[in-house]
Write a structure and sequence with these properties.
single chain; 396 residues; alpha/beta; Aspartate Aminotransferase, domain 2; Aspartate Aminotransferase, domain 1; 7-stranded mixed beta sheet; 4-stranded antiparallel beta sheet; 14% strand
């Protein structure tokens, strides 16, 4: 009989293969995987057959999440990452962005994406040109002049809520031989599927709406099988893989995505309309409002399903201290640096999401001292409005 030292290590492990199928996907925390013979293991390493050998090469729970995202986005495959920013970086590398190449990108993308392009990739010899993504003439001119490897945009920009006309952008990009990368985090496949309308890569910060409960960090890129193969080979070297527990939480979140998004959209339009009538608010950015510059584009792309749960607004004549006082007065709405949760969340872009963007650039983009971003949750809309109204009363 083996000693207690050996028993403690091996007892209870590697039992008979089950003859059942669990209703919910299992969480596989194992780093290693065993096969009946070395030839099978060799074939998996060589790519001749599917299987699992090491988490950087893929794992069962992560693969289940990838399959679910691919199905929702109408993609052949999807590749998961440890964060949304890892997914952004991977998509750019997958599109062929290297030293000496160029990227044309929306100017008002998420601050970390802006910094990645402007600082890290710029220092590595990538030419980056930022454009007003809503001005198709400006975009076309930039793409024609730069001949970029990739054109990058967000379907709804963060935090100014500009809507990207993906079919038109795809035509512009492909005419120049560039790949179109669309960050679909704000819309999700509930509202829009970029691949159906010409995009080459669609990515998400799964931390946000896909997960939906503020308890995980992950990212994902959906694309063709050929592009996904290249991303997986790249992932083996970069090691930006999500852990199985995060993948399982994200997969669980996906199950209620349409239900949550329906509620987010309904609440957001109600809150946006209310904010538009408040004297202490000088501007409301929400594509569901008729006055939004890209309202017609959003209506055409989103097909009547709603306009998302994200909006931003400007506190009239507010300083940073005014904005902070307003946010501190909120009780229901939480001042957290994330979005897309079941909770309503508020953020001050100038000191958080866009802190890495130079103040003069923020001013040019329209990210001023009075701008706040609101991720409208799934609570009762009347309670959200009551909380905003109470906080507005603190402003003189």
């Amino acid at each position: 009989m083996p000693s207690i030292y050996t028993l403690a290590v091996h007892a209870g492990e590697r039992g008979p293969r089950p003859d059942f199928t669990p209703v919910s996907t299992a969480v596989y925390h194992s780093v290693g995987y065993l096969y009946d013979d070395m030839e099978t293991l060799d074939a998996i390493f060589g790519g001749q057959r599917q299987g699992y050998v090491y988490p950087r090469y893929g794992s069962p729970t992560v693969h289940a999440f990838e399959q679910a995202v691919a199905a929702l986005e109408g993609a052949e495959e999807a590749v998961a990452y440890a964060s949304g920013m890892a997914a952004v970086h991977a998509a750019l590398l997958g599109a062929g962005v290297r030293a000496g190449s160029a990227v044309v990108a929306a100017a008002d993308v998420y601050g970390a994406t802006y910094a990645l392009l402007d600082t890290l990739l710029g220092e590595m010899g990538v030419r980056v040109r930022f454009v007003d993504i809503a001005d198709l003439t400006e975009v076309a001119e930039a793409v024609e002049e730069e001949r970029p490897t990739a054109l990058l945009c967000e379907i709804v920009s963060n935090p100014l809520m500009k809507v990207a006309d993906v079919p038109a952008l795809a035509e512009i990009a492909h005419r120049a031989g560039a790949a179109l990368i669309v960050d679909n985090t704000f819309a999700t496949p509930y509202l829009f599927r970029p691949l159906d309308r010409g995009a080459d890569y669609v990515l998400h910060s799964a931390t946000k709406y896909l997960g939906g409960h503020g308890d995980l960090m992950a990212g994902v890129v959906a694309c063709s099988a050929e592009r996904a193969y290249a991303l997986r080979e790249q992932q083996k070297l970069l090691g930006a893989n999500p852990a199985p527990q995060e993948a399982w939480l994200a997969l669980r979140g996906l199950k209620t995505l349409p239900l949550r998004m329906e509620r987010h959209c309904a609440n957001a339009i109600t809150v946006a309309r209310w904010l538009s009538g408040q004297e202490k608010i000088s501007a409301v950015h929400y594509p569901g409002l008729d006055i939004h510059p890209q309202h017609e584009v959003a209506a055409r792309l989103f097909g009547g399903r709603g306009f998302g749960g994200m909006l931003s607004f400007v506190l009239r004549d507010a300083t940073q201290s005014d904005a902070f006082r307003f946010m501190e007065a909120l009780n229901l709405i939480l001042p957290a640096t994330t979005l897309g949760d079941v909770y309503s969340l508020i953020l001050y872009p100038a000191h958080s999401s866009h802190r890495q963007v130079a103040p003069e650039v923020r001013a040019t983009l329209g990210i001023g001292d009075g701008l706040v971003r609101l991720s409208v949750g799934i609570e009762d809309a009347a309670d959200i409005i009551a909380d905003l109204e109470r906080a507005l009363h603190t402003l003189t």
